[in-house]
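Lecture notes, unit on protein representations.

Consider one protein chain, 173 amino acids long.
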Amino acid sequence: MSYFMIDVEADGPIPGDYSMISFGAVLVTPGLQQTFYGQLRPISEEWIPAALAVSGFSREETLAFPTAEEVMRRFSEWISETTKGQPMFISDNNGFDWQFVNWYFHHFVGKNPFGHSSTNLGSLYKGMQKDCFVNFKHLRKTKHTHHPVDDAKGNAEALLQMKETLGLKIRLD
């Protein structure tokens, strides 16, 4: 089983009506050497300036990005090339990140290589600590910059810390 930490930046709150602008993925293994970064041309005329601003791109810049079909196909191929067993999707905010990645895979590739499930890193940490009010973010090493690879890497570092220092039983191939 291979765990992929994912982070998404979008120009609005939901896929279809709005667009995923960029995303980052990190294969969670010691060293965190294998990453994927995708920038996607908007698929909708709708966008919220404040949401897009988080990504650091202007609307004009995003209109020059590669098509969603091209990027999602490359991402699917990368997952296939780096996966041992079933790929598992994990993110800091899987309610947001999963909806975009799942929707884009189904619409532009025809299937989601992650299947039908995702894991929320924050909920996993809260369960380990038996405390719904704790936060894992102090376990990150990489600064949270809103560049999706940086953010996915920081979250992957937290997952590795949960394994190495807190005893999380997880197999990372």
